[in-house]
Amino acid sequence: MDDLRDQMKAHVDAALALLDVITDPVEREAAARILGDDLIPDAALRVKEVRGDALRALRAQGLTLRAIAELTGLSVPRVDQIVKGVSRPGRGSK
After folding, report:
1. What's the distance, CA 13 to chain centroid?
2. What is the Cα–Cα distance from 17 to 19, expressed in whole angstroms?
3. What is the Cα–Cα distance from 94 to 85, expressed in whole angstroms?
4. Per-residue DSSP letters for 16-59?
5. How many whole angstroms separate alpha carbon 5 and alpha carbon 86?
6. Rounded distance, CA 51 to CA 82, Å?
7. What is the pLDDT of residue 88?
8. Is this structure's pTM higher than 0.85?
């Protein structure tokens, strides 16, 4: 899992590094805005979909919420929320 995390972090770091090579301040601000306002929120929505799909796939295999929680390190209520597509309180709507 650490290798996967490292690979994903490297990709995120590469996107952020692109900001550092833009010398024009106006272009750099525009690129940062694109990343922060468009790309990261889109990625966060995709991540939410992937997590929900993965946990629902485990449920479809017959695993209980408790078994999924144990496999993933999440709490049973959090697994239930993700499976149902419910956002955490204070984190926006689903």
Report:
1. 15
2. 5
3. 6
4. HHHHHT--SHHHHHHHHHIIIIIIHHHHHHHHHHHHHHHHHHHH
5. 25
6. 7
7. 67
8. no
Half-sphere CA count of 56, side-chain side, radius 13 A: 11
Least confident of 11-15, 64-68, 86-90: 86-90
Give dist(CA 3, CA 46) in Å, integer: 21
pLDDT band, residue 89 (cuts 50/70/90): low
The 10s digit of each residue's pLDDT in 34-69 is: 999 999 999 999 999 999 999 999 999 999 999 999
Sign of CA dihedral 79, 41, 91, 85: negative
